[in-house]
Amino acid sequence: LVLVVDYGAQYAQLIARRVREANVYSEIISSKAGVEEILARQPSAIILSGGPASVYDPGAPTVDPQLFEAGVPVLGICYGFQAMAQALGGTVAKTGQREYGRTSLSITQGGCLLQSLPNTLNVWMSHGDSVSRAPKGFTVLARTAGAPVAAFEDVSRRLAGLQWHPEVLHSQWGQQVLEHFLFNIASLTPDWTAEHMVTEAIDAVRMTVGDRRVLCALSGGVDSAVAAALVQRAIGAQLTCVFVDHGLLREGEAEQVKNDFVAATGVELVVADERERFLAALKGVTDPEEKRKIIGREFIRTFEAQARELAGERGIDFLVQGTLYPDVVESGGGEGTANIKSHHNVGGLPDDLQFTLIEPLRHMFKDEVRAVGEELGLPEAMVWRHPFPGPGLGIRIIGEVTQERLEILRQADAIARHEVAEAKMERDIWQFPVVLLADVRSVGVQGDGRTYGHPIVLRPVVSDDAMTADWARLPHDLLERISSRITNECPDVNRVVLDITSKPPATIEWE
Ligand code: XMP
Fold first, then answer.
1. Does residue 169 lie within any of the structural domains?
2. Structure confidence at residue 51 (pLDDT)
3. Which end of the chain is less congested by CB atoms within 10 angstroms, N or C?
């Protein structure tokens, strides 16, 4: 276990991910944790992350020098580097010279940390103060114009530090520098692989569940699919999955769950075909919030009815949730290794059904979930599926949702997805909503005749976390193919438009 001590910037999660990319397991711990708490976790190495503070700020987080005496290898990054230098008796100077962004770094001595790198490289910096004198026993390895001591190490004590951010992609050789720390200085073994994650998650589920019964709601999304497949691998027939087919999925997705997923995993699946119920409930509704409420409500009612029935027949003790590690970190629950927490009316289940939640993906990042999905042999289209909103196509038809409109949108969406896949650009795009403006008409001409049809909006975006997004610059010939196929093949569509708004000010979805 490598513990990443979080000094309050967005970098800690990225560092933890990079460590895992080196096949070493890592977790994040708050900088508010004391030395004893950190060491009690028995980390095999510690990384102190960057953070927004200056070591001179009143109340700035500090590092207890005892941390460096425990014999555990430590790497300080950016703020963590400065806090480390200060704690060990070096000097951090208020130079007043800020370095921000891409900066040229000169390596004066490779040492263990920077061995076999070029003499100069571009690295990503973001600091005001800088270390002007390394603590006793440390060798200075590199400098920049604004940082006379930009990296140091004391190999005998297995301590090292960097002023720049090796975890960001803009830093050349960043991953290598991290790996030099992990493998050359801390002598760790790269054993955190998809296979290992699967074994560990299976053991944990078996321990928790014993011979009791588990329920899982499948949505068609990657998280619930991988969670269910893991639990199935662990406890087999003690798991029952419920899939509510609300008729608002994209082409082929319901079949993926009903056929391919079941074939790949052997999961026992209960399908609730509620397509008509959802359509009836949405009849005449055009307000986006109203639609969301109705879809949510109907979903819960259906799932609740299924859960009650199953609970009555066989009893259900656990409910699977596809919670990921970033959610755990963000809700402040990073500590501890428990992979269950008690159920608090999650997923809209009635309070009188008593469940315990089981969260087999609680320690994983999204890319790890995908790796585990592949390891478990899930269909590729499911593992690499883009995020898709729970209310589905219901909020991608602007106007009333009808069967006919769903069919048009499903067809247009399938064309866009097919062409993106053909162009091998699926993994360059975060998400690609296709939207039908059902209440808008425009004039067109097709063959010899005037048409008066509806526009389809293409909304491809790039993003890291959906909190902000930018419109994806797709190649013009790809856009042209999508446009011409949609207008030729989809009835009543005579115009295709591209949404070129970032988020903010727009959101990713139109409703
Ligand atoms: P917006 O439109 O707010 O969307 O930029 C951000 C991300 O959230 C997804 N989204 C949803 N996901 N249930 C979901 O599970 C929902 O009701 C929902 N609404 C939006 C959206 O697709 C995007 O990835």
1. yes
2. 86
3. N
